[in-house]
Amino acid sequence: MSQEPALMVQPRRPWRHPAQNALTVTVIFTLSALGGAAVTAPTGLAGNLGWFVSFIACAIIVSWIAGRFRSKVAAADLVATVVIGAAAAAVVIPWTSLIYTVISKGSKVIYSGWFTTDMSVTAADDVFTVGGVSHAIVGTLIIISIATLISVPIGIASAVYIVEIRGRFSPLVRFLTQAMSGVPSIVAGLFIYSTLVILVFEKFNALAGAFALSILMLPTVARTSEEVLKLVPDDLRSASYALGASQVSTTFKVTLPTVRSGLVTAAVLGVARIAGETAPLLLTSLYLVSFSTDLVGKPMATLPTYTFGNLQIGTENAVARAWGGSLTLLALIFVLFLIARLLAGRGPGK
Amino acid sequence: MVEPSPAQVKAITVVRSTGDKVFRGIMTAGGLTSLVVLSLIAGFLLYRGFEIFSDFGFSFLTTSEWNSGIDDIGTDARMGVAAMLVGSIVIAVIAIVIAVPFAMGVALFLEYYAPKRLRNVLTAILDLIAAVPSVIYGIWGYVVLMPLVVQWSKTLNDYLGWFPLFSVPAPIFERSPFVAGILLSIMILPITTSVTREVYSRAPKDQIDAAYALGGSRWGGIRTVVLPFGRSGLVGGAMLGLGRALGETIAVFLVLNLVFKVNFNILSSAGGNVASLIATRFGEASRYELKGLMAAGLVLFILTLIVNAIATAIVNRSARGVA
User: Fold this and answer.
1) Which of B249, B272, B226 has its CA nearest to residue B80?
2) Do A234 and A273 have their domain in common?
3) How far apart are CA B103 and CA A163, in angstroms?
4) I want to staple B250 with a disulfide (CB 3.0 to 4.6 A). Which of A106, A278, B81, B116 is the partner?
């Protein structure tokens, strides 16, 4: 019995990389790294980035030569692999730098009172043990909540129109939703300024900011909801109709509940889209140094405008506070994304 | 079985209940919100900026100067968005030229090279990075990216300064269109990549396998099947990125020096951007200048709408497989 496995024919795996390939790759990388260093050392190409660029250049040359030992086709394939891999590696560099910089610079100003105090008695230049962003966090949450209340029902209605009703205007609605997602954020702000701020409220306030953001949020919600609703199998709808249900009850009791988590994901993605918008808020809700929950009477602080405002002041401590605002904002958005991903991981009906 | 003659087939008639009619009406209204909002935006900006268009006419698009006059009714004013418009396009084009090759590389890597686990991680990072707010890109661009780009600009200028594009009237390289373009290229990379990848993933698998079976390499399959198939999708993705780049405000505002003069020396510290013009001038604008900003906003709105509409049409067409 124990002899039997040895007698079995071992399946060959031609697609597996043999050890020889690993050796080739290692040799190519070592040679290129050395070549990169050799080029960088004497010339003016500065720092790690210069090394990276010359490393890629060397890797292309070395892999071409290595490939030529086999054939022209193999050489082209190796070079393409190196170039494509290098492009993927290269784009990660700025992202890593961005997140690293925000965390390292932002964490310097965060202390125990950062989340509980506002800037009403603190100047931007004060030491980092006073003042905070509580007003901006609350403002951001308020404005985002109102924008969500406006755009989520409309966005879902728009998706229901395209997927469930399949009316005459469906292609037009889909096209316009896509076109709307390209509206520059400053134009949305300018529009709300020229209507709500000038004509209706006659002052800058949080409500106007929420309306401006809902214009930007609507297309994201509508398009994601549409994708999600399309996943509902037609059998479910047919079954509902066959039982004599009307379209209203089919939609509200069968279709929408089936994709509840998907719709929440759509809302969260919409929130992540607008949470960091600055330009429209500069034209609508402006900025306020103190804690406020007044929606109509006065401007309201938000994390993006807090960051931007401190950056505009430009002194050392103010810029440091701007980094702190950035970190808080980034953390908020990452948490939202985490929620969206957790919800998106659940299938329809859960 | 005998086919029933047409007279025997009863036409299906739908009688909708009142509830259904109301429901359909409400949902249709929801669907048409985008139409209403888009027309309202165009209508109000035109209404507010109409005085500017009637005062300056077509020269609003061809004048570079931005002088709002000496009083609220715009005496001696001379306003135009030519420099800003050209500047916006120059920056967006720089961003696209840099971003598209990288987007292609990343899309191909994710779709055909990366192991499954790495692909999942990278896709998640890509989604996350797409949500990083522009103000954070702006502050990072100003503090971290700009000093680097200034170095590259100097090198470029040293070696290629004889070429008009890379020459500078004065050796100041900060806050140039080049800096703004590179920052924008980093910002639009996620969206360009995801659209490109979407199209590449629809390339016919059997043809790629056929290329392998004929003894072709992985690159051979990509070059002969995937790239031709995805060409129009790539164009669409690039144009969506272009639309984003044209409308970007805060990040550009922080890393670009606005100068009201058409400038093609991309390394010199003088550029233009319609969105940043609005953000810059809005705070201290006179009543008349505000109308000018509304008019500029309308120009930007129409420009991005056209670019996005073309991009959407291209992407949709290639998504249907008529590549």
Assistant:
1) B272
2) yes
3) 31
4) A278
Is there a contact between B136 and A98 if contact means CB atoms under 8 Å apart? yes
- CA gyration radius, chain A: 28
Whether A123 is in a domain gets the answer no
Cβ B28–A161 below 8 Å, yes or no? yes
Residue A236 domain-assigned? yes
Nearest to A157 among B27, B189, B254 (CB): B27
Query: What tens digit of pLDDT does each residue of B237-253 get?
Result: 898 899 889 989 999 99
**pLDDT beyond 50 at B322:** no
Query: What local confidence, expressed as pLDDT, does residue B3 receive?
Result: 61
Task: Say how many residues make up chain A.
Answer: 350
Residues A83, A140, single domain; the answer is: no
Based on the fold, state whether residues A308 and A241 are members of the same structural domain. yes
Taking contacts as CB-CB distances below 8 angstroms, the residues of chain A near B106 are: 87-88, 91
At the topology level, CATH places domain B78-319 in MetI-like fold (1.10.3720)
Burial of A47 (0-12, 13-18, 19+ CB in 10 A): exposed
Is the distance from CB of A318 to CB of A329 less than 8 angstroms?
A: no
| Domain extent listing, chain B | 78-319
Model pLDDT, residue A276? 87
Closest A-chain CA to B296: A187
For chains A and B, count residue pairs whose Cβ atoms are closer than 8 Å.
260
Average pLDDT over residues A236-240: 92
The ipTM value here is 0.88
A80 occurs within a structural domain: yes
B65 or A347: which leads in pLDDT: B65
Provide the residue range defining the domain that includes A99.
18-106
